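Q: How would the structure tokens look for this protein?
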Amino acid sequence: EKVLAKCPAAELKAPLEEAAKDRTRRTSAARVVGSVGDRELSKILEPWLGDPDSSVQVELGQALLACKNKMGVPPLLKALAASESEVRFRAILSLKRLNKSQTFGYDMNKGADENADAIKAWDAWWQKDGQKLFE
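A: Here is the predicted structure in token form.
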């Protein structure tokens, strides 16, 4: 991944698009895209934002945000309700960076039910302010 990230974005587009089609290589492709940091290249990940795996959602979200692509927010919001605390931690950490360390009361040690109000607040933030990210 580190070696690929040093290649020009234009040369990576086709192979990473192909890699992203394979669920087992999707997270690796996302990490390469995030390391490159190219907004145009990041668009190859957008078709996979509906991946049902919460770990993949976090990888995609983080990669897109590293490329200044606001479409990284929805998968991170979805990951806030993940059953795994590690996934929730990674999601809230990424979201906090976007929102001046605001968490809206979200606690990564609690499940989706206990965080329902905070998750609603994050969704409201996305609807109101999130659309203006990176403009």
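The radius of gyration is 15 Å.

The chain has a mean pLDDT of 95.

Upvote if useful.
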